[in-house]
Queue: 3 jobs
Job 1
Amino acid sequence: MLHFWWTRLQPLLFGQVARDKKWIAEHYDYEQDFYLLFLDRRARCYSQGIFSRHDESLEAAIERKLDFAVRSLRVQPGTRVLDIGGGWGAFTEYAGQRGLHVTSLTISAESQRFVQRTIDRQKLPCHVLLEHLYEHRAEPYDAIANLGVTEHLPDYRRTLACYHRLLKPGGRVYLDASACREKHDFSSFIHRYIYPGNPTPMCLADYIAEVERSPFELIELHNDRRSYELTARRWAERLDEAREEIVRRWGEPHYRKFRLYLWGTAHSFASNLMSAYRLVLERPARDENLCRWRS
C-alpha cells in the first residue's frame, strides 16, 4: 500500500515528465535482445496486431496494423509524421520505408539507440529524439501516430492539447491502446515488477468525453480485444520457447515475472477483464469550438 501511494505522489512532487523518464527507463532499458526474443520478428512492435483469423502469424497481424495506421493517417511520401513512443522502431521503419518523414519520440536511451541504428542502416528519412511528448516543440506535423503509449499518458486532456498543438489543421491522429471500462490502475504486480509508475489502461468513455469537448472529431473506432489476446498469447508462447536463453542471460526471476505478465495479459483479454481499441481522430480544418475547449 505504501508503494502504491508513493507512486501516486511522485508526479505531484517531481512532475509527470521527470517520473515518466525514470519509470520508462526501468522497463525498456534492458538489452534489446530480451524483447526481440518474444516480439514479432519483422517489425518488433510492442502493441497489438490485427488478426484476421486465430491461426494467423504474429508477423502478418502486426503488418496489417501498421498498414492500417499509415492508411488511416491519409499521408503521402514526403509528409511529416510524429511517432509518439519509438519502442523498437516498428512504425518509424514501416513508415520511413514508404517515404514518410517520421520524427520518433522516446524517453528510453536503449530505444533511442536501437531506432537510430535502424534509421542509419536503411537511410530512412526519419530521426529519433530522446524527448517526452509534453516537452516536444516543433512545427506542426501532418499526422501523429501513437502505438500503445496512451496507457502512459493518463491525463487525456493534456495529451489532446499536445496533439492539437503539434498537428496541422486537417491532420489526423492514429492511436491504439489496451483498455478497461473504468479508469483505474494496473494491478499491483504490473506496477511493482513490469511497468513502474502510474500507467493506466485507457478508459474509453473518459477518453471519448475529452475528445468530444476538444476540437477533434472521432473518425474511426475499432475493438481489438480478440486481437490483443492473440498478440499477448503469441508473445507468451515465444517467451516460453526462449526460456533457456532468458534464464541464462537475465535470470529465472526475470523470466517468471514476464511469463506471469504476458500469460496474465492474454487471460485478461480472453475473459473480457480488459479490452483494446484503435482510434482515428481528425483535427478539423477550422477549429470553431477551440475557444470553448480552452475555457
Job 2
Amino acid sequence: MATITVIKASGEKELFIEDKLRQSLLRAGATEEIIYDITSSVQTILFDGITTQKIYNEAFRLLRNYSNRSAGHYKLKEAILELGPTGYPFEKFVGELLRRLGYKTQTGIIVEGECVSHEIDVIAEKDDEHFMIECKFHNRKGHKSNIKIPLYIQSRFKDVEKNWKKLPGHQHKLHKGWIVTNTRFTEDALQYGSCVGLKLLSWDYPKNEGLKDLIININLHPITSLSSLNKKEKQALLKQGFVFCKQLCEDKEVLNRLKMDQRQQNKVLKEAHDICNFNPA
C-alpha cells in the first residue's frame, strides 16, 4: 500500500496508520470481523491529503450498520462536541461526572474570594478535598487551550483559596484548582499547570486518566451519542439537564415530554440501554 498522508482537525499532517483505526474500533467494542470489514472499506476511499474527519465519517457510517452500541462508543469525541454550542451542558456534564465519582458537586456557583466574587463552573467536595473547577468547552476538535487559560484560572483560584482557608474546618483541607477541557492543552499550558499545582484534565491528559478514560471507565456516555435522537431532541434533553444515556435509563419518563410515540421511545431506550450496559474488553 502507498504511503498516505492525512490531515488532522488541527491542520497538522501525519501518516495514515491503519492500526490506529483498528484500535479505535476495538475500543468501541467492534469484533475482529467487523474491524476487518471496515478497515478494508476505508482503504478504498483513501487518498493523499484525506482528512481524518472523512475517515472517521466513513468508519462511523459503516459501524452503525453493524452495531448502534459500538457506534455510540466510537462517536464519543464527536458526541462531546455536540453538547455545544454553549459551554453550559459541558459544565453540567463535568459536574454530574464527578458526582458519579463520589463528589458532592454544585454548578454555576458564585464564590467569594478575598478580593472579588467569582462565578465558578463546578465546585466539588469529597472528604478533605475541595475543588474549584473551570470548564473550557470548544466546538472544534483541533482547538487547544493555551497558557492564557491556566494563567487566568490560577489567579482566580488563589483569590478563592485565600477566602476558603478562613472558613471553619477548612484549614487542613486540600484546596485545588482544576481546568477541564473537551479538547487538549498546549505544551506550555501543561507545563505551567504542573508547575503551579493546577489539575489539568483534557480529552487524553493525564495519560490513561483523561476525560475520555473517565467516561469509558464509569460508562457515562453523553446522550448526544444516541443515533436514534435527532439534534432538536438532544438539545431539548440537554436543556432539561439530561446529559447522560444512563440518565435516560434511570428516568425513561423524560421521553414522554418530547412527544415521541411509543415505538420511537422504545428505540431510544434500547440504544441507551445498549450503551449503558456495554463493558469494554
Job 3
Amino acid sequence: MKRVAVIDVGSNSIKYFLGALNADGTLKTITDQNDIVRLGEGLRETGMLSDTAMARNAQAITRFANDARANGADKILCVGTMALRNAKNTTEFITRVQADANVTLTVIPGEEEARLSYLAVLSALSTVGEVVVFDTGGGSTEFIFGNGADITQRFSIDLGAVRITEKYFSDDPVAPGSVDNALNEILANLEKGGVIGNPKQLVGIGGAVTSMGAVMHQMTTYDPDVIQGSVLTRDEIDRQVADYSTKTLDARKTIPGLQPKRAEVILAGACILKAICTRLGALSIIISDRGLRHGLAYEQLKEEI
C-alpha cells in the first residue's frame, strides 16, 4: 500500500499528514499532526522571515520528515503558503529546509491552495447546491465557491490571524474597541477581495475553525471524528469572541479544547469567522477537519493507481 506524506508549512502552524488509500478508494489517515511554530511572526513589519522563526520551523519540518520516513512514506511533499509567498528571503528558508530535512519545499499559489482545500472537503462531506469553503490561516484566507463537485470561483485574500493579532490585539487583555476595529478592517478586506454571495452551505477548515469546534465541545483530547461535520452557530462564534476578548493570554491558555500555542491568535481567527458569516449572511459554519494536506495526499495517491 503506497503511503504519501504532506507537510503543509503555513504562516502560523505546520501540519503533517501521512496517509494511504483504503480498498474503497477513500483516504486513510495514518498520522495527522500539527505544530504551531509561527513562521510568519513579524513578517508584516519587516517583510522577512526571522532567523529564529526559520530555525524552529526547519526543525519542525525535519522532525515530521523523519517521522514520515520511519513510517514508510513512499513520497514526502512539502508545500508552503502565504508567508512564503510574501517573504523576501523565502529562498534562504527553502535552502535551509533542503539541507536540514532533505525535502524540497515548494511554494504554491493561493488558487492552488484553495483548489486542494475544496478537494479535501469533498472527500469528507456531502455538499448540496451552492457551497463556499474557506480556510483561514495565519497569513491568508482562501475562498472556494462551488456547486457540488464543480468549483465556480477560487481566490486568496491577504487576511490572516497573525496579522490581525499583531495589528489590533497586542494588549493583554485586548484594548476596548479593538475587536470592533478589527472586525471593520476584516469586513473591508472581504468586500475588497470579492467575497459575496448567499451560499446554502458555508464550510470552514483550518486551525481557527477546528480550534473553535474543540472549545465548543470542551475537548481535553482532540477528536477529529467529533469535529468533522460539527456546526458552529453565529451565537457560539459571538460567545467565543466575547470570551477571548475579556481574558488575558494566560487565561485563554487554560480554556479546554484550545491549544495553548493558539491562544495568542484565536481571537483574531474568531473575528475572521464572524466577519465571514456577516458578509455571506450565514447563520452557521460546518466544520471540516480536512484541509490542504488531505487534498494533496488524496490527489497524489489517486495518481499512483
